Amino acid sequence: xxxxxxxxxxxxxxxxxxxxxxxxxxxxxxxxxxxxxxxxxxxxxxxxxxxxxxxxxxxxxxxxxxxxxxxxxxxxxxxxxxxxxxxxxxxxxxxxxxxxxxxxxxxxxxxxxxxxxxxxxxxxxxxxxxxxxxxxxxxxxxxxxxxxxxxxxxxxxxxxxxxxxxxxxxxxxxxxxxxxxxxxxxxxxxxxxxxxxxxx
Length: 200
Description:
The protein has helices at residues 3-17, 22-36, 40-43, 61-69, 146-157; strands at residues 47-49, 73-79, 85-90, 96-99, 107-110, 125-128, 132-133, 139-140, 162-166, 187-190, 193-196. It is an alpha/beta fold. Strands 3-2-1-6-9-10-11 form a 7-stranded mixed sheet. Strands 4-5 form a two-stranded antiparallel sheet. It has a two-stranded antiparallel sheet with strand order 7-8. α2 runs parallel beside α4.
């Protein structure tokens, strides 16, 4: 399936997400944090590369704060002009800055020192945003390519952190269009539980 197929699926999934109420999002965020922490890899991780959810994305803030409370080092992305990602450390809500990149949605990024794009290679677990994942563990992202670059950087560095995508229950689907450069994730976390993909 081609890039137009991905665009169509993205539109459909975003339409469903945008119907969620704030109460739905709050309940989902708490459940996601609880389920994610059931992953042994996340429970024992010393460094986690994560992200701050925005808009109708499954909420991550409760999870970020729980990880910090457990003395986990949490790295958050900062979008670069070429759509690559730099990284900075999350030390609590006060360490975030709201940043608007051109006409795109405003993002919450680390306000402190930048650690460089390669900082992600030191993570034990990388939490990936997405719109869907299928039975093979193939993830559908938003199409900007930022996380494709992250995954390629991890591969070049010869490191294999656990790759985990956070989604709503309805976003675990039968099939996601995939291209040669797409990589499967190790697990998906939804409010109702965790599903692993042993072939990843």
